[in-house]
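User: Predict the structure for this protein chain, please.
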Amino acid sequence: ARDGLIDSNGGIRAADSVPKLYDRMLSANKLVAKAIMLNVIKYTTTDKMAALCKNGGWQLLNQWLAEARRDENRAWRSCCSRCSTACPSLWTC
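Assistant: Here is the predicted structure, written as C-alpha cells:
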C-alpha cells in the first residue's frame, strides 16, 4: 500500500500494478503475507483480476490451494477457497 499498488478500497490500484503484485505474491513465503495478497485480490475490480489471472495469478492461487491441501491446513484452504469464490472471473481465465 505504501508504494501505491493498493487503491482506497483495498484492491489493485491500476493495471500496471498487476505485475508488481504478482511478483510480491511469488515472493510471499509466510501465510500472513499470502492472506494479505488474497484480500487484495478479493477487493480488486474484475478487469484487474483478469489481468492478474493472465499474468500467472490463477496458477499461483491453485498452487497455494494445493499446498494448503497437502499440509492439511484447513484455515488456509478455506481462505484460498473464499478468494476463489469472491473472484469468479478468475475461473474464466
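The radius of gyration is 12 Å.
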